[in-house]
Amino acid sequence: MGATPVADHRRLQRSLFRMQLSPSFAAALRARDPECIRSTGLNDADLELLLALDPAGVSADPGGRRQGQLLGNCSGEFMASVFAAEVWFGFEDVMPSFLGAEEFHSAIANDTSLPLAFGDYLARTLTGGAYASLHELLRLQRALAAARRSEFPSVQVSPGEWRLAPGAQLLELAAGTLGWLAELGRVLEGAEAPSHAAKLGDEREWVLLSAAPKAGAQILADVQTELLQPTLRTLLLATRDGLVMEARDEMALRCAVSRAELDAFAEQLAREGVLLLGK
Asked: Who has greater pLDDT, 5 or 106?
């Protein structure tokens, strides 16, 4: 006699969670849709165990508390984009639709970040040329969410080299995006009344995202944002691939500062964790 397969409890839990949150997925799985079955990764015995559960018990969610809590956890870092999409761009039910989206099911099945999956879902859903300003807002929020979760490797810097620190990221956006995010934050906190969607122009702005070291694997990093003025933008863009000693005199000229001022500027950025300076 063959050995009885050992139940894969983690896959069972993930598949059950998907059934609890997505009635359409549960219905397709009970109908033995091949693609749904493949997405669970379950063997035949585990699949039969899952399908033997009482459908009413699986779907029970008094007051929608489970669904509401999950959506709140997934969307919290994107509420400015959700608010703008629903209030000014005519999108309805942006949040509940996530539970039936491929991004939600893929994240559960592969045990990856649900908030990042929610950001990917928004990027796919909120499409169209008429929503250019919304796209820029979402790009900023997605970059922030990713930076909070990033694990940055140590970087070796050659002697005399200046290099952008792993926790620092430069993001090019439509001018006004960072200010619009701050305004929407105040609206969501109740400090301001909503006015209108920002009309971002063709001009561009550069934003520095600087993530502090994470205090633990399950803790999100603190990420600071800064709108870059021309001098700082010029310097930091040049350090993404490394700025060597021989190029600093030219960089000082481009930044319209003395070499001593440029060096002092770099030392300050190093103390702030934005630059790595090779000694």
From this structure: 106
> Which residues lie closer than 8 Å to 96 by C-beta, 6 or more apart?
67, 71
Q: Would you give the DSSP letter of residue 154?
A: P
- Which of 53, 63, 64 lies closest to 19 in space, CA to CA? 53
- The residue count for the chain: 279
Nearest to 167 by CA among 158, 178, 154, 177: 154
pLDDT digits (tens, 9 = 90+) for 218-247: 789 999 999 999 999 999 999 999 999 999
> Model confidence over 193-226: pLDDT tens digits?
777 777 787 899 999 999 988 766 678 999 999 9
Burial 124-158 (b: 16+ CB within 10 A, else e): eebeeeebebbbbbbbbbbbbbbbbeeeeeeeeee
Q: Which residue has the higher pLDDT, 155 or 188?
A: 188
Three-state SS at 152: coil
| pTM for this entry | 0.85
Evaluate whether 221 touches 148 at the Cβ level (below 8 Å).
yes
